[in-house]
Design a protein that fits this description.
- The protein has 360 residues and is α/β, with parallel strands linked by helices.
- The chain folds into two domains: 118 residues, 3-Layer(aba) Sandwich (Rossmann fold); 206 residues, Dihydrodipicolinate Reductase, domain 2.
- It has eleven helices and 15 strands.
- Strands 14-13-12-11-7-10-9-8-15 form a nine-stranded mixed sheet.
- A hairpin with a 2-residue loop joins strand 11 and strand 12.
- Helix 1 packs across helix 10, helix 4 runs parallel beside helix 5 and helix 5 packs antiparallel against helix 11.
- The longest helix is centred in the C-terminal third of the chain and has 20 residues.
- The radius of gyration is 20 Å and the shape is globular.
- The structure holds nicotinamide-adenine-dinucleotide (NAD).
- Nicotinamide-adenine-dinucleotide binds next to loops.
């Protein structure tokens, strides 16, 4: 029997979720969105038979559902995930996992109580580069990663003005919580060590400057709220002695959009990077996956060649979720890791607000 799944949220990511679920053999039986017209349009586009404008009604009307995927504005991630877990469904939720560590802790507890799988779409872990790098790390080729630098720097990438992305109450914050992918990927490579302290600064420059708008995102809302940061920079220490610096922005004067994790291990250093094209989405993006080592007394740089993945792991990540439910793959992420990540994000916002380091 194929896994039966429903998608909640008719936004752009639904296409990747649908493709990944189907590639793994799942059946997408329903789509729910509070906007009935958007739900109908997306369901028709993706060939999904049943449409709902109310999630509770869908959970009642489709009892055979095994799982849901949640692709809605950040504020609704935790409430919808809780609702689905309570109804006995497995959950695959878009990033960020929740608005705060407190919400994430409640989600983790609910998943354990319901004995259901709870995973998040940290799709960058599912990129071919990340899988390749994790093989080297697992084989011991890298040694202990002492430190790493996680970056997602956008020159002009504000995802719309005044909509939910720029309203802290709806999004949880700006690029720090939105572009948390590289912090997560760095932690993944490092073995998700337990964080000790974080020190961070956020910057609001140009957050309302239309010249810094991204080529995608959601429509502007004329009298909407814009109360989030445009950039965040910080440093995290871990109880293991490891450390990480991070830089994330929607609007910073950088050469081009850089999405990367660089690390320094005791046996080898490494890099996984995408340099986007001039408009953020064009075909001139450059991907790199490299290892730096000392072999036979000589310094060696190696390029690891992997298939190009324009989707940045978004399809593969959805495939992983279904295979986890079927028991044929290990989960790419766990609720414990999501909680650790949310503690770092919370701590970074607190540090930026107080101007002091925060113990985690
Ligand atoms: N992993 C990635 O690469 C990636 C990329 C883009 C967006 N995202 C995430 O996807 C999520 C959605 O982003 P988006 O850009 O599609 O947003 P969006 O605003 O375009 O679409 C969200 C949809 O959710 C619906 N919705 C809102 N509240 C709802 C509720 N309570 N119940 C059901 N439906 C509801 C809206 O009507 C809308 O159709 C966000 O959490 C975002 O962080 C992830």
């Amino acid at each position: 029997m194929p896994i039966k799944i429903a998608i909640i949220g008719a936004g752009g990511m639904a296409a990747y979720h649908a493709k990944g679920f189907r590639e793994a053999g799942a059946e997408i039986v329903a789509l729910a969105d509070v906007n009935q017209a958007a739900a109908e349009k997306a369901a028709a586009k993706h060939g999904i038979p049943r449409v709902f404008s109310d999630v509770a009604e869908m959970l009642r009307a489709v009892p055979e559902l095994d799982a849901v995927s949640i692709i809605v504005p950040n504020k609704f991630h935790a409430p919808l995930a809780l609702q689905a877990l309570k109804a006995g469904k497995h959950v695959f939720c878009e990033k960020p996992p929740a608005l705060s560590a407190k919400e994430m802790a409640a989600l983790k507890a609910a998943g354990e109580k319901a004995k259901r799988t709870l995973m998040f779409n940290f799709n960058n872990r599912a990129r071919p580069e990340s899988y390749a790098m994790m093989e080297y790390i697992a084989q011991g080729a890298v040694g202990t990663i002492n430190t790493c630098q996680a970056k997602w720097i956008r020159r002009a990438g504000i995802p719309g003005f005044g909509g939910w992305f720029t309203t802290k109450a709806l999004s949880g914050g700006g690029p720090l919580i939105d572009l948390l992918h590289m912090i997560d990927l760095g932690l993944h490579f490092m073995g998700y060590p337990e964080p000790a302290h974080v020190l961070a600064r956020t910057y609001k420059d140009n957050i309302d400057n239309k010249a810094f708008k991204g080529p995608w995102g959601i429509p502007d809302v004329a009298k909407g709220v814009t109360d989030v940061e445009a950039a965040a920079h910080g440093f995290v220490t871990f109880k293991t002695g490891q450390s990480m610096s991070f830089a994330v922005s929607w609007a910073e004067l950088n050469h081009r959009e850089e999405v990367s994790v660089t690390f320094q291990g005791t046996k080898a250093g490494g890099l996984v990077r995408r340099l986007f094209g001039t408009d953020g989405i064009d075909a001139t993006a450059l991907d790199a996956c490299q290892l730096y080592s000392l072999e036979n007394g000589r310094h060696v740089n190696r390029d690891i060649i992997v298939p190009a993945d324009e989707t940045m792991g978004r399809v593969r990540s959805a495939t992983n979720f279904i295979r986890v439910l079927e028991g044929t793959e290990k989960p790419l992420n766990t609720p414990d890791q999501a909680l650790s990540l949310m503690k770092i994000i919370d701590g970074a916002y607190k540090s930026a607000a107080t101007g002091k380091p925060v113990a985690l």
